[in-house]
Amino acid sequence: MSTGDLDMERIIKFDAPPSAPDPTRPRPRQLLGEARGYRDVVRLVFSGSELRRQPDISGTAAILIPGWKAPEASMGPLRFFLRRRGCDARHWGLGVNRGDPERDSERLVASVHNLSQELGKPLALIGWSLGGVIAREVARECPEAVSQVITYGTPVIGGPTFTPAASSYGKDECRRISAKITELDAASPISVPLTVIFSRRDGVVSWPACIDRSSLQVVHYEVESTHLSMGLDPSVWTLVAQQLARVNI
Fold it and tell me: What is the pTM of this model?
């Protein structure tokens, strides 16, 4: 089932988790496929009128969390778009994502809780890749302060296991992280509304690892961008705006 006003055929909605093969670590040729991401930049340049027709999301507030080794500026274009649509969109405030989601989620919990109290409403958390892992754990820890979580290109299964970052973490650490995630999902599934955006063209995170089968309120959307171009894909921006508007109703 397709959705969205912008290139509807490029977005597929799954109300139930889609079937998927076992995740595997991306192969070199898949990483090379990331070069196709320039197409999404071109699409973005010519999508101004369509993006301006997306919902007014005044009254919403969101924190944007970058991916592994990425600076806050990587979320800047999406932040600019969301602010133009009325959202109080903010960077996460921790600078470059250094790759320690356990430490960073603990640090972010306090910030989210305090900001939620200050604003008098829960916040949406939007995470790209590893940023989505952090967003999920913050929502698990303080659901009362989180209105929803939106992730794109985020590994739900295995942590870094099915990404090129696996070699940086090492086999033992990957196994530990994978077991921890499985334990948390079984004992304390995420309860807030969760939007999972994934792409079969993702050359960095194995797309089957992005499929969430444990959260209580999850919907999946498939797009056609590569992993590195998701942050500039107008289809992703459309989904983010529409989900913020939907949960804010």
Answer: 0.94
